[in-house]
Amino acid sequence: MNNNPRALALEILAKVFEKKAYSNIEINNILKNSDMSDADSRLMTNIVYGVIQHKYVLEYQLEPYLKDKKVAYWIHILLMTAIYQLQYLDKVPAHAILNESTEIAKQKTNQGAANLVNAVMRNYQRHGERKLPEGNSAANLSLRYSVPRWMVDLFIDQQGMDQTKNILRSINQPSHISIRVNTNKTTVEDLKNSLDEQGFDVHASKVSSVGLICKSGNLVNTQEFKDGLYTIQDESSMLVAPALDVQPDSKVLDACAAPGGKTTHIASYLKSGEGEVTALDIHKHKTKLVLENGQRMGYSDIISTGAMDARNAKDVLNTKFDRILVDAPCSGLGLIRRKPELRYFRKEEDLQNLQKIQLQILDSMVDLLEVNGKLVFSTCTFDDEENELVVKKFLDKHLNFDLIPVKHEAAMDNSISHGMLKVLPSDYFTDGFFIAAFVKKN
Known about the structure:
- The chain is α/β, with parallel strands linked by helices.
- The chain has 4 domains: 5-127, N-utilizing Substance Protein B Homolog, Chain A, CATH 1.10.940; 145-171, no CATH class; 177-232, Alpha-Beta Plaits (2-Layer Sandwich); 236-440, Vaccinia Virus protein VP39 (Rossmann fold, 3-Layer(aba) Sandwich).
- Helix content is 48%, strand content 15%.
- It has 20 helices and 13 strands.
- α6 (94-108) runs antiparallel to α7 (111-127).
- The model has no long low-confidence stretch (mean pLDDT 95).
């Protein structure tokens, strides 16, 4: 396999931009199958995420040199990788970037492509970085932060200008790793000490009392992870299971469960032999992930799975639950820091289409919930269409349900509005998230 980090970055970016592949999956596939040095792995990863995060700016820099030329899209991407390195990576020598990029073009096709890349890059070096337009118009913010214009307009409309700028500044910063401690197997303090001894720089989460934060490092390869002492989970996702107010003997349905982070969190509140959680996912192979996570964390006897579309659950399941979680399919706008390509994949009409699916799933849960049972609805996005408007439409249709305040830790008091919890990506440097809770009256 080619071990050239710049060539591999180009390969990944072509899949992301042309085939809507997810960058983290493509990066992991490459790292598993290559024997690159740590430095080269870091360079490749940096280029991939950097180009995705700054795509509009890089295209703006290239525009004067490509406007009259018809070039293959891979050449366009290769030039963006080169501009990214020149503009954002101080420690990489310019001559190395130029030579490598030219050589990649030559090997990929021919000398003509190499000459074009060389000419554009020398032109760019001669004229220098093109100044971005000033001012905080939606168009300028869209360019500066490489976020589609419709998304910037949506954020301004719903969150206001100041909050929008905070969100946009936040999402292009590197994310950290967060883990949820399995307090049935260890304590937060003991796990922190153990990981610190191994060289991980770990500190407590501000969002969850069972969360720990680490800036970098491979936390999947530790013995503690294999022994189920913790799982990788974003901090805001750790707020969902507590919102269900699960009791040791609760009968819980996790309607959209894979890969099982929230399922195992729910299971941690249940007593073996008394409580149980049924985890559904539309994809059968993903229910296997839920079971594997459950086994590693020590909850095999509490978790069972089923492969089905949650919209059809009312027609398939012949049992009732006193707690139901609908962690619904959504646009994922809250995940853009960790999955930066989502900003280009999503369209404005997706929000309305997803709202319909979310309401269909919630409708399917109504008859599965016991009277006085609690239903929690959550998404990893922060736009109103997929959150507050879904809550309103659900309550308007189902008069036997009341909205109740989301159960939460005191640290999250400022994120509660009208009893619902909403976290913006800029609030705590977590995923953007939303949680609402209902009770069935009769």
